[in-house]
Amino acid sequence: MKKLLFFIAVVTLAIAVILPVAACAETATPAITAKEAVLMSEDGQVLFEHNATEKRPIASMTKIMTLLCTYDAIDGGKVSLDDDVVASQRAASMGGSQVFLDAHSTYKLDNLIKSIVVCSANDSCVAVAEHIEGSVEGFVAKMNEKAEELGLCATHFENCTGLPAVSQFSCAKDVGIMLSQLIRHPHYFTCAKVWMEDFVHPSGRVTGMTNTNKLIRFYDGCDGGKTGYTSEAQHCLAATAKRGDTRVIAVVVGASDSKTRFKEVSDMFNFAFANYESHVYLDVDSRIDNVSVQGGKSDSVAVKADGKLCGFGKKGNVEFQLEMQLPQTVKAPIVKGDQLGAAILRDGQGNEVSRVKIVAESDVKEKTYWDYLKEIVTAR
After folding, report:
1. What's the rounded Cα separation, in Å, for the pair 186 and 190?
2. Closest Cα partner for 81 from 216, 188, 200, 213?
3. Which residue numbers are catalytic?
4. Using one digit for the tens of pLDDT, what is the confidence trace for 105-136?
5. What pTM was estimated for this model as a whole?
6. Which residue, among 77, 38, 43, 78, has the nearest Cα to 54 in the 3D structure?
7. Which of 55, 110, 132, 234 could be disulfide-bonded to 81 (CB atoms 3.0-4.6 Å)?
8. What value, to the nearest 5°, has the Cα angle with vertex 60 and ends 54 and 61?
């Protein structure tokens, strides 16, 4: 009994000592030992950085761009999640992390994407690249085009997997920007939240998948990210976490071991949530109002935002104004998705922070001669 009471007393004392230290640590600037690190808001504001633009290998974090280009192809109608993808011999023979695809077997694109997100499958990356662009080389060219489009400052790709290549490099800041773009795709989160799942091959064979991003399970609010490791790149991690309306992104490149990469990303998350907050002023697809339509089969059209406007800043200091720019009347015809106005978020000094389009929710066809005649007859 005395031993039990002593144990309880020791544990209680330890908790009393540890908790205040942990609380202080959350507000302190993160101590980073990795070669590079960056912490940023969802909209790209850099909150903390450490050597964030030095060119280095990033291992499997390369797959963030692979996924981003895949979703671009889906959004552009080039491919669909339900596509059948035939795994080539080249895909099936990839080394490193994989789900052991059977050469010449057919897989759904949806499942291949999930295997890339969850367990960093190199073989699935190659199969997807070949399906979308006809060759890995063609797909990698698209990856580099996307890097240029995003204005990445220190990124070049030679493959779609992150396996070592002499001229393949990026940096923590560029990886953060890539991840900020990737998380705009809702389907990504349906995959990223998976902890463990079986990948079932057409033959019935099963490969077990476990999420390489341990923070998905062990950090409150973490719902996405990508790990990476090679001897050249060392241990890497890019992750995102959300609490309330506040979402942040943290990246480490070149940590000494796996435990360190998870700890240092967690420390950056703690710093962000302790010191910053975000307020959503206008959400994606928010219904705004109706706009009158002149010369249309309908007298008005419903409009909505095609993006989200968030104000982000230091806690207690998030003050923004939402400005709506909408015409009183628009002329028919109108096609669903047509931009009819804009919503602008301004800071306390009136400077524009960001803007989104306000678009029509439906088509409005132009009135015909017979429509006008019908109105005259009905009016009588």
Report:
1. 7
2. 188
3. 60, 63, 120
4. 999 999 999 999 999 999 999 999 999 999 99
5. 0.84
6. 38
7. 110
8. 50
What is the C-alpha to C-alpha distance for residues 252 and 175, in angstroms, rounded to an integer?
A: 9
What's the Cα-to-Cα distance from 245 to each of 273, 282, 309, rounded to whole Å?
11, 12, 11
Model confidence over 294-348: pLDDT tens digits? 999 899 999 999 988 999 999 988 889 999 999 999 999 999 999 999 999 999 8
CATH 2.60.410.10 residue ranges for the chain:
283-370
- What is the spatial distance between Cα 244 and Cα 221, in angstroms, rounded to a whole number? 9
Question: Which structure tokens are listed for 220?
Answer: 């409150």
Cβ count near 188 (within 10 Å): 23
- Which class does domain 31-277 fall in? alpha beta
Residues 129, 135, 137, CA angle at the centre, nearest 5°? 90
Q: Which residue has the tokens 């005259």?
A: 376
CATH number 2.60.410.10 is the correct assignment for the domain at 283-370: yes
Q: How many residues does the chain have?
A: 380
- Give Cα separations from 32 to 14, 16, 29, 188 (angstroms): 25, 26, 9, 28
Amino acid at 192: A
